[in-house]
Design a protein that fits this description.
This is TerY-C metal binding domain-containing protein. The chain has 171 residues and is α+β, with helices and mostly antiparallel strands. It contains four helices and ten strands. Helices cover 20% and strands 36% of the residues. It starts with a helix and ends with a strand. The structure holds zinc ion (2 copies). One zinc ion binds next to loops.
Length: 171
Amino acid sequence: MAAQSQAIDIAEGTSSRLSIAKAEEAGINLIKQSDVSSWAPMDERVAVFTGRCHRTSRPYLLKYASVAVPGTFSTGDWDHFYGLEGCYPLEESYFEWSSIVPLHAALSTSQIEGVPPCPHCGARTTLAKCSCGKLMCCNGPGVQQCPWCDQSVEFVAESHGAGFDMTRGLG
Ligand SMILES: [Zn+2]
Ligand SMILES: [Zn+2]
């Protein structure tokens, strides 16, 4: 009799812990799969780039938001491209308080929809890329100085379909 009552006491004292253990044993996921997919991290939905105006050397920020488009219908996969949300002129202080850590995930221009003009000088594109990996504005083919690394860069007219890769940064 004594041994039996002792066993009951233990079960009552640890009842909550036991029920969780049982759920895990039974293979029950406490978080539904649908909940997990809706918790995709923000940096997968928003792509933020910083560049500099090649004339004024002042920085700017490009913000793109991920847009899901149907991919191959047979697999049901969804692809993503990034649509332009805005282009904003920045001050140098942005780099002082912002925790910009360049992600080295490459994003091709074929995934980018919309190229804004430079907010500082009005140059045609803000997505010209130097060999140093940084972005600057560009108004057409020719040689210009990179506002990040000071080297001369020659830009040629971009042939259609030939995208270039960009370095993604955290906002
Ligand atoms: Zn510019
Ligand atoms: Zn450069």
